[in-house]
Amino acid sequence: MSKAWMIAGALALMAPGVVLAQGNKAAIAAALADKDRPEADVSRDAGRKPGELLAFAGVKPGMKVGELLPGGGYFTRLLSKAVGPKGVVYIWMPAGTPPDRLARLDPILKNPAFANVKLVLGEQIAPPEKVDLIWTTQNYHDLHHTGKSPEPTNAAALAALKPGGTYLVSDHAAKSGSGTTDTDALHRIDPELVKAEVVKAGFKFAGESKALANAEDDHTKKVFDLHDKTDQFLLKFTR
């Protein structure tokens, strides 16, 4: 398949209602079609809709991004390519993260194709410069695990952003009004609670997208049983 056809296919994964500068749209499409993405990532695109998330967040070349808890790097690779060589992606993992979990990121951190990705270890994210975007997907609920509080992480995100910067939060939705009841057992969280917590931290709510909504998910199952078919919320805040 030619690169032109790959980019055309990637554009089709992007939200039709999102207005982007042509350069932004092309950068996102090229990131989706990039040859350095593993097939295991590409195969999940239909469910995770990365083009729509990148577009909603306003990702563009030259951006400085901080990604919280990158997991296996699915979005790290996309962010790296979309911001390009003049941009940078700081990925945060907590101090004391077991070596085997950090090793999951070696295919990115040791690959010259992702030279603009930098690992930041610490109690909270503290990149060496202010960033344009803080990004976290499918893991905000983890900040509540075993009675913990997300307040330090939200405060660190606010401090790391430039004025006017964006905080993008997406996660698996729990039943409305459930608060933190399902964060440990089901790995879900009530989106209204997330909104309240992030606004309390000093952010302004800037909008939400239904790109990852799934009405067929009744919010009673563990997210691991549904893989990429959970009902997910997608929220945007600004500093």
Automatic annotation (TrEMBL):
Q: Which GO terms describe its molecular function?
A: methyltransferase activity
> Where does the record locate the signal sequence feature?
1-21
**InterPro entries to which the protein is assigned, alphabetical:** S-AdoMet-dep_MeTrfase_Alr7345, SAM-dependent_MTases_sf
Keywords, comma-separated and alphabetical = Methyltransferase, Signal, Transferase
- Which biological process annotations from GO are given for this protein? methylation
Name this protein carries in UniProt = Putative methyltransferase
Which species? Novosphingobium sediminicola
